[in-house]
Structure formats: C-alpha cells, structure tokens
Amino acid sequence: MTCPLCTSAAPLIATAVSGGPADASIDICAACADPATPADHFRPIASTMWSEDPALQVFAARTLKRLDTDWARDLLDQLYLDEETQEWADNVAEQTDHKDSNGVPLANGDTVVLIKDLNVKGAGFTAKRGTAVHRISLVQDNAAHIEGRVEGQRIVILTEFVKKRA
Known about the structure:
5 helices; SH3 type barrels; 2 domains; alpha+beta; single chain; three-stranded antiparallel β-sheet
C-alpha cells in the first residue's frame, strides 16, 4: 500500500483524526504522522488532498496549515471542503497536558521561544534564550517534555523553559 498523503510505499499506521466522528482514522506512513517531518515530504499532497474520504481531507487541510510554507498556503487556498468537513478541519481542540511556562496549552506544530539559556547535553552547544523552536512535537508519555530542532539538532526540551509564541 502507498501512503495517501506522500505516496511513499512505506508501511502504513492507523492515525486518528480528532474533532470529527469518534472512529475517524486514516492509514498513513509514520513520516506523515510525525509533525516534525520536513515540509518537502508532503509535496505529493497536491494530488492526494482531493480524496473523497473526509478524514483524509481534514488531515490534509490541517497538515497544509501546519506546514506554513508558500506552496502549502497556495494548496490550502485551492482546497475546497464542504461546510461540515471544513468545520471538522477547524476543530483542532486537542486536549493536552503539555503546557508552557505560563500554563498555556501546547500542541504539535506550535512554535515556542526558549526563556533561558539551555546547555544541550551531548551536543556541545548552548541553546540561547529567545531562540524560536518551530513545529514542536509533544512527547506523548511525558507532559513535561517536547521535542524540536535547535541549531539543526533534534532535542528534548522541558516545557518549563519555553513560552508559546502567538
């Protein structure tokens, strides 16, 4: 089977699509399910976003919105969803226990700013205060941890040291 988002022949995993019918899920590759996957991985979405499966349409719309690149914004402008499916796509009320230093809920794909210098163990550098970390991933089994890229390295960051950027 091929992934309906990126058309790769990778093994597929069932992924829930929140905010709609309780049993809504799609089968996609692990790379498409990971919010930290680089935007260029999703280039084939231009042809697959027109699926007749509403759950796939919703996931594609949310993915394009999260990517925040010129080509993704162009595709999002072209994507037409019926009113009910658009409502579902906009309903991203993911409940999360991950909160920044001010208690603001964090979600996959958010941008955060470091509020203090952090010595990155094993990488040999210090992540400076004020550094923006784009497209974070939540560590599912630990609400105090998020993952993100700083200076090209994927690191785990404690949520107490970040502030969500509006």
